[in-house]
Queue: 4 jobs
Job 1
Amino acid sequence: MTEKVENIAEIRIFLRELKKHSSYDFCDYSDSSIMRRVSKILNDNKIDMDQLITRIRTDSEFVENVVQDITVNTTEFFRDPWMWKELYKNYLPSLKNKKIINIWHAGCSSGQEVYSNLILLNELGLLDKSRVVATDINNEMLKIARTGVYNAKYNKTFDDNIRDVLECGEMSADVSVEKYFDISEDDGTIRIKSFLRKIPVFKYHDLVNGDIDSIKFDIIFCRNVLIYFNTSLQTRILQKFHKKLVNRGMLILGNHEGVNGFYRAKFSKDGPVYIKNSAYTFQF
Amino acid sequence: MEINGKKYKAVVIGGSAGSFSVVSKILSKMSPDFPLPVIVCMHRLKHVRSGLVEGLNLKSKIKVVEPCDKDKIEGNKVYLAPSNYHLFIEFDNTFSLSTESVHNHSRPAIDYTFSSAAYTYRDKVLGIILTGANKDGANGLKDIHDKNGTTIVQDPASCDIDTMTKAALNLFEPDYILTPEKIAEYLNQLAS
Amino acid sequence: MARFISKTVPTLSSFERGLGLGLKDVRELSAFMSDVLGIPYDHMPVSFFKRRLTNVFAKNNIRNVEHFKELLTSGDIKENIYHDFSVSITEMFRDPGFWRYLRSLLQNLSPGKTFTVWFPDASSGEEVFSFLILIAELNMLDRIKVICQHPSSRITEDIRKGILRNKNAEVNANNYIRIEGNGNFKDYYSLQDNIFVLNTYLLQNVETVTGHFLNTAINEPAGLIMFRNKMIYYDKEVSEKGIKTLTGKLSPGGLIAIGGKEKMPESTMSSFKCINEKERVFKKHGFDISWNNGN
């Protein structure tokens, strides 16, 4: 018992140090998932907590690695089905008259959400005009995203989510999983079919300091990434998103994230989506 | 709440437009922890959808609300029938609303609220009719009386207009004929 | 305290006596009616069911429940039940504030867009005709298709012909003044044999569908659904089912209006944003960027 309490206290000290020496603020997230990730860092580097804190203070490259390890975003296909259903039925169809649809997944991790969205675009017949860029600071994750091969350990959730979402559409009540995935009999892995895999451009990008393409986007996904940043950095990133969206473009955040501060007034919430510069106007 | 061996479930009060001051007087004198729901059906101008609740809340020590359709009926609350709807009490202890045609030129009609209270609560309801220039409410109060509920008619001598109270007195003999002060006293005595 | 008099045999006023039906009788009969007629009579507030049934009995000279069941099974009386059970709307421009708000919304529509407005439970013409007058004054008659639906063919026929049978001319005229329209209410109708008949030109884009909204869906998505004071006649379960059915027919970003004292069933709220708390107008998530894209 006492050891665990000490652990939590130690982790808090570590998170405060990390905040001082990086652009990240994990102080409000000293929950079990961060505990798990920190334990993994200690194990992988074969160091103890004191040594970890010392290295945070002195080694900026190490800080970068630690941040990457902590922000590794586990995700899954069609995570939060409600959000994807809303996109499918009520938001993505509104893009049908565009010549080109530009989409940016900021913090795409291993790419499941990128492919989830591509599946919906394909069901809606919008795949051909979709241009997708997906970025992350973790090169390992980007590698997985590019190959599009996933361990299907979470088979049940995977199957439930995908059916739940696709069956809400009118034209595609009967979509088979094989339409989009090759499922390996040997090792249970699933691989995204190449017609989807070839569409997104996955690349390294630092949300805080990096520059992104000069084009403007119709949709920006940034799910469960902002939570790791402190308020001033959140505002800076939101500013970037605002600049990179077309007028009435859509910003899609994680379920527990929101637009606060200065940019609150520059977006309007509509269902699961934040719309740029949209004082509510009535339309059918 | 029990009196004379009887457990009450609700108090229903009816009055026409002029009864506002009487209702607020009664509510202002009632104990803030009065345990029963108090359901008030007052004739009111349908184009004035708000204001009445606010006015009563200024005086009342018990919270006054306008129920929505299907709302649960809770104790220690005053419910005011919303304008331009009839208000009914259902068996599952919820309100139901209706836009059926006016009754006695009124919507809400006191008869409807009272009758449904009689039917749902049977002898476990206390019905009170106040000053008014219309006979609405008399039949409904008689329904409460016929189901062995308790009935109070405001003393016609204390009414601005006594049409409503006299119509009730012509139909049956109520349990009590009381002035507004005495009505509040009687209710508080129930609660104590 | 002693009672003044001893109580006698209960004699409820005719209104609540409800044909002398007990709770069990109501459950049985309403279930039977639902089976035969395909409308969820068994999901209505009990007091309401009894009142309406009393009305059906009175209008059709029905002697008792057995007689009624007989007529029901023989099928002669279906239309009459659909007609006499439903509650006609008693006034035009009910809640003038709502109509003023609706006008402000319609005024901000992008020009040229055409769309459909659905009245899934048009129990008489008042709401529909109010809406038609409103859009006539906005010069939008030719842009809006209006679909009115009700199980009773007599009711849908009256609406198609512009007929109002309730005589509330004074209330209607007063409400019209309150919406601050830019015309003269008398110019929108004529009296034929003392019956209100809406001018034909207002009805040019009105279609009627005979059937209950839970069983018969319209083919096209609607931009606006007028569903005011309809859920009050059903229980939570059917209200929820109803809203879900209607939501399925609402365009992304479309609106639904419910009654001033009605609540949206909680389980359906994740599909909507309330855009006017007082007038009870809800917007379905989503929008149609294709015709509102200024850039």
Job 2
Amino acid sequence: METLGIWAAALVTLAVFSFLYRENPFYRWAEYTMVALAAANGAVVTYHNYVKPTLMTDIVQKGSYSLIIPALLGLLIYTRYFRSMLWLSRIPIAYWVGYGAGYILAYYPATLLKQITSSFFQLNSINNVLLFVGVVATFVYFIFTWNRERYPILGYTASVGRWTMMIAFGTAFGSTVAFRFNLLLGRLQFLLQEWLRVVK
Amino acid sequence: MFWDKMQKINKYYIYALLVIALVIPMFVPLGLPISITADTRKVYDLMEKIPPGSPILMSFDYTANAVAEMDPMATALLKQAFKRGLKVVLFSQGDQGAVLAQKIGDDLAGKMKKNYGTDYVHLGYKPGGTVVLRRMVEDLWDAAANVDMNGKPLSSFPLMQNIKKITDVKAIVVISNGSPGFVEWLNYVTGPQKMPLFGGTVSVMVPGYMPYVQSGQFAGLLQGSRGTAEYELLIKEPGKAVSAQDSQSLSHLYLVTLLVLGNLGYFLRKKPADGR
């Protein structure tokens, strides 16, 4: 069974790699299969891990019948398939958006304030000085209300901010490339070590 | 002339050379040295400081597309936890992470003779996103619908008898390749409850997470495959990440060479009459 799994994974990997040559039926088959499997897996796991135990334990066994209300509210999302009742599907979405917005307003400021206070530090090392200059210059870059020709210092500071951001983008790009290389390396290791077994 | 030709080089040559750069070290290891960075040592020290027998929660918040980088990282972290005799509650904010956690957890437990229910329990994936995390603060059992990954009641596991809410665990260890992941744990659990949060992420997420590390909101962060390789050396269990570092280094060298050549080509090629 394990061998079958390895062969299936190897053939699907090669089907996806075939896209490097050009779009083809093997690649499309692999892509559609992946999407279908992910959707099916998500549905089954959600049902067995949450819906079933909540229905059986909380509602049926413990008699928490109030849970039927949010369950019905959630089911309203499926009314979007019927034109005449489509408006009902907006109720759970409105509830979810309102809840989400309130949640974020309640919890995010604490996280962000901590980030701001942590940028107040003593300028006793090169790292701290660079960080301070980078933070201030980047903030200045986004000040558009003052005329930079009238206040040249703003223009100079903004260009330092621009360079700071460019360096940050370069770091992000480098990390992205490293991640992609690692994905390819992972697949090559699988093909050579587990499938073909030519490398230990 | 040379640089004009280089500008039109067939992309398949570039692909082929990249594959060669990645594959050669698998056959002929270069043995390049791997030094331990302060960030990796910090994660190691955090895990070492947790008293043996204490419970921790490990959240496998990554998807199947990141297994190359994340599986070795999760394995190394769980291995150290088991080695130190910590009790581990596995969890995932995503359905794929739950399956990956089960495979790694069961494999390692089998090898290290750890028992399900007493040494570790897998809560699985619980849909609901941040609502589940928030509920864990008040009632972890209820947040998990009172069952583990396989639908067995939590009341049947000795390990869960003393873990009724999230603050009963000593630390949250997150292995994540994006969202949901670290930030959700920070906003809704570890930030308000002042609990230690550490773990690891893929290299692409590292620049975005560094402000959290700098502010101390993430107590420690393993950074991609390189961070895992260092961690494997620290726990004296060299594995997949260590063996991948030669390939990584050679491929990065190849990329730097391409960048230099590309820029040289841009500046040294014969410029068209319109100056573009």
Job 3
Amino acid sequence: MHVIVATDGSKQSLAAARHLKSFADPLKITTVSVVAVIRPYAAVAFADDLTPRKAPKADLESLSFRDAADSATKVVAGVFEGWGPKVQIRIRSGSPATEIIKAAKQADAGLVVVAAGSRGLSDTVLLGSTAQRVQHSAPCPVLVVRPAPRKPKRK
Amino acid sequence: MSTASPDTTAEPEGGEELKRTITGRLLFFYTLGDVLGSGIYVLVGLVAAAVGGAFWIAFALGVSVAAITGSAYAELVTKYPRAAGASLYVNKAFGSRPLTFLITVSFLAASMAASGSLAVGFASYFDTLWSGPPALLVSLVFVALLVIVNFIGITESVVMNMLMTFVEVGGLIIVLIIGIVVIFQGDADFGVLTHIDTSGEFSSPALAILAGISFSFFAMTGFENTANVAEETVDPYKAFPRSLVGGMIVAGLVYVLVSMAAALTVPTETLASSDAALLEVVKADVLPISVDFMTTLFSVIALIAITNTTLVTIVTQPRVLYGMAKEDVVPAVFAKVHPVRRSPWVGLIFSGAVVGALLVIGTLVTEAGGGIDLVGRLATVTVVLLLAIYALVIVACLKLRGQDEDGPFFRANTPLLFVGLVGNLAILYFTIYDDPHSLIWCAGLLGVGLVLFLAEYFFGSRDRSNAVEPGTAVADKEL
């Protein structure tokens, strides 16, 4: 089975990747594709929160959204290193949901893993998160990894 | 320096891993949409007032200077396909951090003034649909809505951008059709097209035309924002020269034809005294369709056109701040992105607030008898700042000749670049000479950049040492 793991450079997407690894059987997975989508028309086309800042100062040369996407996908791909399945990196550009779905179709994926949502108001008030759109139109099952509740006081 | 090559060699098996989505055609529409919305709907009146019936000449000359500048951008973008645009080119050419900072802040300030001018223009067209709310309120709500829309991320749709550009062109085609009908009805007085008004403020035809170019130049700006998508453009070496310069030429053609149509249809005095000048053309009741319907339709089209261009400016500002925060020249909060929406929300709110402040201060000055036209003043501020940047970009382009030329790149025509440089400086000189007060506004906006720099300079070490830790803190919370 080919699994697509999407990352938007957020910590939550790294958590989603780890979550997959925590329960899935590596023998049943042939390939893991880590997909990042750059949004060319957005104010920040790709923000990488995963790579720790090494250089004290970035210069104009290093301000590349493609490089940011590249290093973020490498961090997420690092989760699956030595796990068994082949690990690929895919960087696409466009609208995140559309591109993730396209990647899943092209790879004939058996599962798409996405991170989703905040816990706060913005999730309830604002429409159309990427995860919602992916699970609505993906060609395969979708694992949506949500953040853990802030305080586990259910009862 | 070729940025694409490291990725290409890393995984040679398929183009899929480096899938770029901005094709030459999309880039063309992006350029056209950026350029067309800014100005023609807002500024035709001002230009007509300065030149007289022959104001199309001002548009033709202005767009030529801009297209030449565009060719310098195309050369640099094919050599350095990065989003940082003018700041990067100036940094490459002169290697001076203060100069680079000044250019980046000027670009930011120009973009903010442009948003302000467009928001006021939006309010004047909105007034024709619903004249209830005061103009200031409409423009403030407009800016606030665009900030929210940007935060959510609806603006990123490539398809939407194209549709809005089609609508923009559609509005101008309506003006053209009206002009053609007037010609066929035999009502056109072609003498108007050569009439240069020297009875007013400007005594010589050359001066009147220079004034017209200066006032119309705001309509030529916007193409510099195409550097935003440089990294994501398929085959930038081919796409940029064609789409950027091609887009400018098409925009120029549309401007000239629209100016002629407007001049033939409506007396120049009517255009000159109108806040929403192109609307006067539609109101001339030439087409066999109800004027009310056409007026409403045209206003909606103009609102969409202005929105499209303003969206791009409001995307650009937080992006510039983001880049500067990454370089540690402004406080690091501007590099923060929302964990879910992935938008630089601090930068967005800040940009919106500065534009809002511009609108409020501008309105107060106007009401206090400052005797300024806010659309014109903010457009002038944009033009002054951008002309200085354009001139410097052309110099940078010439200075960087012979460097970083190992990859394929586009070479702009050198004699034309010199013409463009002189053109930019002449328009800059005239604009400042005609409206020296605009410099105060420029200084005020540049001051915002200075304040941010000082904030980072004095308190920066604190957030720099925190720069890694907050990330981990967030991670603990999130996981």
Job 4
Amino acid sequence: MESATWPDIGRMDDWARGDSPAHRLDARAKAVATLAFIVVVMSFPRREVSALVPFLLYPVVLTSVSRIPIGEIFRKMLVASPFAVFVGMFNPLLDRQPAAVVGTIVISGGWLSFASILLRFVLTVWAALALVGCTGIYRLVAGLERLGLPRVFAVQLLFLYRYLFVIANEGARMKRGVDARAGGKKALTLRVYGSLIGHLLLRSMDRAERVHRAMLARGYEGRVATLDRSRFRADDGFFVFGCLTAFGVARAWNLSAAIGRLVLGAAA
Amino acid sequence: MNAAAVEVRELWHAYPDGTEALRGVSFRIAPGEAVALVGGNGAGKSTLLLHLAGLLIPRRGEVRLGDLRVTRETAAAARRAIGMVFQDPDDQLFMPTVAEDVAFGPLNAGLEPDEAEARVVAALERVGAAHLRDRPPYRLSAGEKRAVALAAALAMSPEILLLDEPSSGLDPRGRRRLIELLREFPHTRIVATHDLELVVEVCSRAIVLDAGRVVADAPAEEALNDEPLMLAHALERPHILRHSHPHG
Amino acid sequence: MHMADALISPAVGGAFWAVSGGLIVYCARKIKQTLRENLVPMMGVLGAFIFAAQMLNFSIPGTGSSGHLGGGLILTILLGPHAAFIVMASVLTVQALFFADGGLLALGCNIFNLGFFPAFVAYPLIYRALAKDRRDGARASWAAVVAAVAGLELGAFFVVLQTQLSGISELPFGAFVLMMLPIHLAIGVVEGLATAAVVSFVAKARPEALPAAVYAPTPGRLRPVLIGFAVAALLFGGVASWFASTHPDGLEWSMFKVSGKEKLEAPSGGIHETLAGIQEKTAFLPNYGFKTAEGESAPEEAAAAWPAVSAGTSVSGVVGGILTLAAAGIVGLALRARAPRAVGGNG
């Protein structure tokens, strides 16, 4: 739970408010395709590298079509990478079976599987960020709900997301107050921390009580109704079908190797 | 839309910790009237509003909205007659987009999505916020949030509008627009506020509360011009009255 | 400690999706039956609170480092297991979607590791058993620390288990466990202290905000077993962390035990010299070619992935991979040049 970069969540809302063919696809179509993508990517043998490369096309196309700033995607990936990199970097040390030869260089299985882990990481994380970036949490959750996500959980996601900004602002104000009086000392003693966070907690609970009243005042009776009227159109069907076919082909045949052979064959 | 009368008779309320917030409040408000609830902090304004909104049920005394007496059984119907604008718009705007939020009340009232949509459009236009419909509420300015909160209340087609500190957090221009809007509404309006100049401009009558009791109930200018009364109840005489209507 | 998509296999990811999904459905049903009216906004706001609380740190005496609240345990104390599980699941989902923390397929694993253990093990079986009805004082603090540590250690253990079952990382089980558990012992103590500090503040400032007993049923027979389990985990974590800190080569020793073999011959070649250099810097595994459990099967696997370890195939893979990469880049740039500027893109 070491995420600290919450404020730029709002940036992803900005991306999602854009308009592009990728934005206009139904959230369900994008969610299904992205999930299939991730499953297929993860289903490769652990030392596979070259066959994974063509899969980059999916997040690249989604990101480019919807004009999501690619630098920010990379920055997010970098922030999230330590665990996968940390665990993966042992592979080269632990698995030294020679597995491939390129020219005069012998590559061990460990390096291949490490490269594979990094590539998988980039692919899966990028695809997920692109999905959210061109859909937005709200349409995504509404879509998932229609795919069977329990309503309680869908509503929970929406409320959490909504109050993230409000409570985070309160937290930021308190932090500023503390920093102003801390005289350069960054961290608090446990006792002061307990009372600060405790205050924040009580304020959050009061907030929940007031929100509940506002809901009741507008006729809330235990069910949050939404206006979602998105429709699954033929385009969405083509998109899902096209993606699944492409993923299947790229899973069955190593396209990179095929292209390589073709080029080398032509050159020779 | 019909404006409804509001009647409160001998209303008492004590919170679980024993604090007596209301001690025998009575008044009657005619349909379409705009009335201010004024008083210092802890005078009982918020508790009174919660009773009028059907969010607290009278245990002693009674509250009538039009022909409806508010009880546990009629609370849901009472809430439908009321449009309430809360003090902090962040408490009120909890849905992901402005349009969803404004539609929340109509959908709960059982309207079909198309009808709800029509209500959304009309309400947002009424407050001049039609262009905000697809924005997430947390990215709005304070004035925009207030306008949307007002639209959310209007979309319920209420007979009575309750407003809790509607001008707090607004810049002068936002406040001016709010005042213009509130003056035009045909609804019965009850405004709890410290903004006495807003009272003078919007309300024809002021009910002054202190320690859970009504200490004055008079035409707005008369009540607010009564300097001893104002000072005695943690209030002050509004500046705009000092020049135009010197107190006799 | 968020599990990443890159490290798990679809089978493991899918299995834990099913488990966590089932738990969400079950908890959602339970929540619908509760009488607590304001639960919906309360859950949402408290989920947001967990995020916000993580912006503030406190100093850990004598270490120079600082810690913050994790979430699972305090949510359960405030909301009870079912609602807390849903809130944790939502927090992790938002982290996966917006921070790339964890991944979509790993989400099931993460929800299970970080949601299930605090809500359904640490809180009912350890915290409530140890704290009884105390919310404040030394006893409650100890209960929070023990419960937080147990919850996190179990979660960390499952991270290892899931990684192992997936077989993408080469880390041997024992070594990985020895790496994860001490780290999470420390994180758990911090989490427990933070939880205790906040709960004790609320207990003094507004006791009615803490529900007396949201969740009572602690099966009598099971309780001692689980407490024993928790204490064992605690001890194990403690010993392991002592071991790891005072005895850096202990890890090597344990990995040797795990692998059950003497050092293997390191194949010669340029890449391996580089490797040896890296190894010396990390001073972790000099001269050991572990992963011998797979020693026998590795050649076949390699053969499966690379039909023949011949220069020809590998080269075409590399060349083709680079070309494909370049093509993907060009496609991206081309689409970017063509697409009209997105409305909200300038934020």
